Amino acid sequence: MVEYYEPEEHYPKADPEEMRKWEEKRNKTLARKRENRLGHIQRHLTKILSNEFPEDAPEFQIVYEPMTKYPKDKTGPTIKVPYDDSPAYRFVIAKKDNPQEKYVIMELIRSDVDRNVRVTDIPQHYQIRGLGNEHIKEGIEKLKGKKSRGLEQTRGIASIILIIGSLFFLSNNITGYTIANITKILSNSIGVVLFTIGLISAAYYFVKR
Q: pTM here?
């Protein structure tokens, strides 16, 4: 009995340089598609900001940035974005005059960004209307709250300074009740005014808190 063997097929080896160029071209195409998708999402969120919060919109902006860490859950610590999920991005609402003050609206990993979704279906597919509206509102409240707390702390410190200053003018330890030729009556008057302003400022501070 004669046995027949299929001849071995010899495929040409891939050229490493050609493979490198192909991979580079593919990565550029994917990066361009991601930027387009991120731009569409950014415009949808910006539209929500402008339409739903017209009074606050001039003060804020919606931007996206690369994300290397993200919270695994709401209460847990942040973890590094796995290689298979990179690149990852986050959308934030930030103050125009201080972009470092920001609040996270949405976090997307590579599989989220690379979804095969038509441009017209992006708002519904990413739940932009619901999540975007809710998180933009939260971000505005948080960022405006930080500014308010800063002003309140300033008022609190100012009230302490005013009260201490008033005690200085009202103190009986001032020799002759005179500072730079200020008479006793004028010194006491200044002390009373400063003390009154300090009390009002302190009361306002604690009411706000």
A: 0.61
